Amino acid sequence: MNKNKKVMLVFLLLIIGVVVYFMTQNKSQVLEVVKQVKMVSSSDYVFDTVQGKSIGINVADKKFKIKGMEDKIVFLKVFGWDCKFCKKEIPELIKLKKQLGDSFDVIAIEAQQHSKEVSLKKIKEYGINYSIVSGDEQRDFYAYLQEKYGWTGIIPLTIVVAKGGDVLAFELGAKSYSLSELMHASLKRN
What we know:
The structure is a single chain. The chain is α+β, with helices and mostly antiparallel strands. The protein has a single domain, classed as Glutaredoxin. The protein is about 40% helix and about 25% strand. A 5-stranded mixed β-sheet has the order 7-6-5-9-10. A 3-stranded antiparallel β-sheet has the order 2-3-4, with no helix packed on it. The longest helix has 23 residues. The N and C termini lie far apart (about 55 Å).
């Protein structure tokens, strides 16, 4: 009987190890920076884009009021240039922005702490038509996401914000569905 318990324990540990391995190999990436943030009470954030614009965001319970974008659907993204799943979303974001014009926008926070120069080079390389924010200055915003939404640093992160600021979706990691499908599903919930 003792031998059976040992075999079961070894088997259970093996299964746990396999599960942990596959979780770390998930279609996502966890940012180290989230482990370093402190809790914050601030609800106003200013995102300075690498393109030279400032975007003000006021956050409250399940609301992200983005100044100048109140009449748009907005994808607020946290991504990284080195994240292969994040890079796969870029062409779709460009396409959505072109198709939907002024009714839709994207604010993407590059959270892997690349320089402004690297981001500007990538914007040109990919033909990006939306705002990119340097993420190394956004630790308080990451802390807010961690505190209020339980975000653990997994990227890509997509927050779908409706016209008027209601948060329609908070999606972690890569998905089997497209971003346009996510938007349509989110709008149906609204």
